[in-house]
Design brief:
Blueprint lengths: L18 H27 L4 H8 L11 E5 H7 L1 H9 L1 H19 L1 H15 L3 H14 L4 E5 L4 E3 L11 E11 L3 E11 L5 E6 L23 E3 L21 E11 L13 E7 L11 E7 L9
Parallel strand pairs: 1-2, 3-4
Antiparallel strand pairs: 4-8, 4-10, 5-6, 5-7, 5-8, 8-9
Helix pairs in contact: 1-2, 1-5, 3-4, 4-5, 5-6, 6-7
Length: about 300
């Protein structure tokens, strides 16, 4: 079966007569909308694609406004695989990179144009005409984007006061009122560093909620053990492609937008005689600038412990 653009839909979505296809069709539609938005943004960046952008904005069926984020209903995960849902809930921080990698694979498989562009970027750099190589490298930059997954509709929504150490690293939903928002700033998620002594690159250095450099150089003849002797590579690398966990590579780091919200527990949840409690909520990527002071929201994510910078 194919969608309205002629792209083949994943076969597994229609093996069961009706029910399974209906259950997963929203995600196929989301993947199509994500691919269409990326392609329309690519056309707009080159001075064209006005018609495509207009069609995307007016497309029926509740098209997603996200270009790199897949919204996933947690109840669908439970219905599909209970063990998978339990693993994601209990160890979300551990499995999040693999979920992002799965989203990237799903989007590329659901839209053949992006998959071809992803493969064509590497091929275009090694041969062929100059114009074809430039086009492939330009389009492949959209196929190698970092993708994110946003889970929602968890069975329980917790009050802020119930957040304890047993919730660290677990997937949870909390309800609260936004009291303050910060500016949107860039955040380094995964970095590539160059040793200042031998020049060897250390790729895929995942940041541990603060600026994290390599502790030792992998070159056995260098053995540089001073983190201050590593420099972050800022060039993104047009033909770098993506790593196994769905992050972009090619000599640069993976950055995303970042915003901090100050969230206070709802007035109805404050015990008599107690002061309201607050917590900082970090929003990333396309979730920034979606809440303002005074909004009552449900936030789904994981509780993390940040290092004390003053210690």
């Amino acid at each position: 079966m194919v969608d309205e653009d002629g792209n083949p839909l994943p076969r597994d979505d229609f093996e069961d007569d009706g029910a399974l296809g209906r259950r997963y069709f929203p995600y196929v539609e989301q993947a199509r909308q994500i691919a269409r938005r990326q392609l329309s943004d690519s056309d707009a960046a080159h001075g064209g694609g006005d018609d495509d952008r207009h069609d995307h904005g007016g497309g029926g069926g509740g098209g997603s406004a996200f270009a790199t984020t897949l919204l996933v209903d947690y109840h669908h995960v439970v219905n599909h695989d209970v063990e998978l849902a339990e693993a994601v809930e209990t160890e979300f921080v551990r499995f999040e990179p693999y979920l992002r990698s799965a989203v990237r694979t799903f989007v590329l498989e659901a839209h053949s144009n992006l998959r071809d562009e992803d493969g064509g970027g590497a091929a275009g750099g090694g041969g062929g005409g100059a114009g074809a190589g430039a086009a492939s490298a330009d389009l492949s930059s959209y196929a190698s984007l970092s993708y994110f997954v946003a889970l929602h509709n968890l069975p329980n929504v917790l009050p802020l006061r119930s957040l304890r150490t047993d919730k660290i690293g677990r997937l949870a939903s909390v309800s609260g009122t936004v009291t303050r928002t910060s500016d949107v700033r860039p955040e380094l998620l995964v970095g590539t560093f160059r040793c200042n002594k031998c020049g060897l690159l250390a790729e895929g250095i995942r940041q541990q909620y603060h600026f994290t450099r390599p502790t030792v150089c992998r070159n056995p003849r260098c053995r540089n053990a001073s983190p201050s002797e590593f420099t972050l590579e800022m060039n993104s690398g047009a033909g770098g492609g993506a790593n196994a966990d769905g992050t972009t590579g090619g000599g640069g780091g993976e950055f995303c937008d970042w915003q901090k919200l100050r969230v206070q527990e709802n007035s109805a949840e404050i015990p008599p005689g107690s002061m309201p409690r607050s917590v900082d909520v970090v929003c990333r990527n396309e979730m920034v600038e979606r809440a303002k002071a005074g909004d009552r929201c449900v936030f789904t994510g994981s509780l993390v412990v940040l290092p004390d910078g003053s210690a």
